[in-house]
Write a structure and sequence with these properties.
By secondary structure, the chain is an alpha/beta fold. About 35% of the residues lie in helices and about 20% in strands. The protein is built from 15 helices and 20 strands. Strands 7, 8, 9, 10, 11, 14, 15, 16 and 18 form a 9-stranded mixed sheet that branches. Helix 5 packs antiparallel against helix 9, helix 8 runs antiparallel to helix 10 and helix 10 packs parallel to helix 13. The longest helix has 25 residues. The chain binds ligand BES, manganese (II) ion and zinc ion. The site of manganese (II) ion has 5 residues, from loops.
Length: about 500
């Protein structure tokens, strides 16, 4: 397998832009922006920039790209990247611009970049250091890992950030961005991995290695212990597969932790979803290798949380299994008993995510979690409702849901609040068990969330449905096709900001 991502060396620089030594200096350009604060840039380009502005080749339109050679400066060339109107500029805009510019540099074989925060943007040096570092690291990802003739892989090696300050706070922000970018890429690499190389056991082994690296304590529970814990929902889904299930438990216990709150993060880890006996159609079934993206997000967020020493205790739980239609598979009409004791009639074996999450969310409570967030590629209905640019955000109470929403905004993972109408739970009525595992097509994303809510025991709980956002179907300027690592930074930002919600 080829390397799919590399984290470049990232440093702050205070020298004048003309003295930054790089293959390319990267400068954001706003709409209607004469670039007056960048003195001598145009003359170093031999007038190329003024000419391009005049003929409107450079307009500042989002992700527009223009290269010009520089003479007399330490960098050989400049890349002007459009970032849209100045009034609409945000830290996330800077993150995306850095990612788009990094990808453009790599495309041209340029490996050392300088990223410049323009003056007068309203983005602080801290915000800029974090988001520029994140964007640069995110651009250093290339998913095609099993090609045997991929000869031209260029990685960024050195990134210099010029943000107008190099205080300790700005250094810390850079480090945050570097770690968050790297952990996002680790999750993307996991989601990208096919199901024959990333089985539940292999995922658990990766979790062991990554946790050790990040200083997390970790435990892997095998099928025997899962049976002792009576996790009938997880075992029920696993029955159709030749691969045994696993349950990964990660713990972050900082010395200086807030008293009280324990954040419980739970991620769906279906390493392949065939649908089981309620089998999926052949078209696009290959996409279901990424049905463990929620689990990857929890694992990699926990690594970031530990590396950045978030001031709150956290528990990560990842139930791992395939959903296969083997001879012992759970069949429609079968009744499973959850670890908590609730019985579930499985009307559709393709609604497996909520089953394994039911047992895992219950277990997070058993381990002492006070605040819950689950992340799952749960429903096609969520993709229909919100499209592919926003994750579905469900939860209660509203204050807790809003905290997750804010974390996702800071992270550049767009999410959108969805309702939890309790009367929709009537749709899960079963003749034989406490409830069924599907409520029909109507409101499918909401009912999926309501199923998981049954296992949250009334704790503050949020469910992020990432079915539409875990995989980018189309290439964007700032993100190639493929796994996105969505929710890694959201969960980490939430833990880093525990002061704000620990009292909720
Ligand atoms: N993993 C799928 C959800 C999914 C669908 C993710 C499309 C990404 C893209 C999930 O396990 C599933 O199959 N959900 C069913 C639920 C239904 C049977 C109630 C669905 O969405 O059709
Ligand atoms: Mn399914
Ligand atoms: Zn699934």
């Amino acid at each position: 397998m080829l390397t799919v991502h590399k984290t470049p060396a990232i440093s702050l620089t205070n020298t004048s832009t003309r003295d930054i030594e790089a293959d390319v200096l990267i400068l954001p350009v706003f709409e209607n922006d004469p670039l007056e604060d960048e003195t001598d840039l145009d003359s170093a380009s031999g007038g190329e920039i003024a000419a391009a502005l005049a003929r409107r080749e450079v307009t500042g339109k989002l992700y527009e790209i223009f290269f010009a050679p520089l003479r007399g400066w330490k960098s050989a060339r400049v890349l002007l990247i459009g970032v849209g109107p100045r009034a609409e500029f945000t830290p996330d805009g800077l993150r995306r611009a850095a990612a788009a510019a990094g990808l453009a540099a790599r495309d041209r074989g340029l490996t050392r970049i300088g990223l410049i925060l323009r003056s007068g943007t309203g983005v602080t040096p801290e915000q800029a250091a974090q988001t520029l570092a994140e964007g640069a690291v995110l651009s250093n990802f290339a998913a095609a890992s099993y090609k045997t003739s991929d000869t031209r892989r260029v990685w960024l090696t050195a990134v210099q950030l010029h943000v107008g300050s190099s205080s300790a706070a700005v250094e810390a922000a850079l480090e945050r961005g570097r770690v968050l970018g790297e952990c996002t890429n680790l999750a993307r690499a996991l989601s990208n991995e096919p199901s024959n190389t990333l089985t539940p056991r292999v995922f658990a082994d990766r979790a062991l290695a990554l946790a050790k690296d990040a200083g997390l304590s970790v435990e892997v529970i095998d099928e025997k212990r899962i049976a002792e814990l009576k996790m009938g929902l997880l075992l029920g889904v696993a029955r159709g597969s030749a691969e045994p299930p696993r349950l990964v438990i990660l713990r972050h216990e900082p010395k200086k932790a807030l008293k009280g709150p324990i954040l419980g993060l739970v991620g769906k880890g279906i390493t392949f979803d065939t649908g089981g006996i309620s089998i999926k159609p052949a078209d696009n079934m290959d996409k279901m290798k990424d049905d463990m993206s929620g689990g990857a997000a929890v694992l990699c967020a926990m690594a970031a949380i530990s590396r950045l020493q978030a001031p709150v205790r956290c528990i990560g739980i990842i139930p791992l299994t395939e959903n296969m239609p083997g001879g012992s598979a759970v069949k429609p009409g079968d009744v499973l008993t959850s670890a908590e004791g609730k019985t579930v009639e499985v009307l559709n074996t393709d609604a497996e995510g909520r089953l394994i999450l039911g047992d895992a969310v219950w277990y997070a409570r058993q381990l002492g979690a006070t605040h819950l967030v689950d992340v799952a590629t749960l429903t096609g209905a969520c993709v229909v409702a919100l499209g592919r640019s926003a994750s579905g955000l469900f939860g209660t109470p509203d204050g807790w849901r809003d905290q997750v929403r804010q974390a996702s905004e800071r992270a550049g993972d767009r999410s959108w609040p969805m309702p939890l109408f309790d009367d929709y739970f009537d749709l899960f009525k079963s003749e034989i068990a406490d409830f069924a595992n599907t409520g029909g097509r109507a409101g499918g994303a909401i009912t999926g969330a309501l199923f998981i809510k049954q296992f949250a025991g009334g704790l503050p709980w949020v469910h992020l449905d990432i079915a539409g956002t875990a995989w980018a179907e189309d290439a964007k300027a700032y993100q190639p096709k493929g796994p996105t690592g969505v929710a890694v930074r959201t969960l980490a930002e939430l833990a880093l900001d525990a002061e704000a919600w620990g009292k909720l």
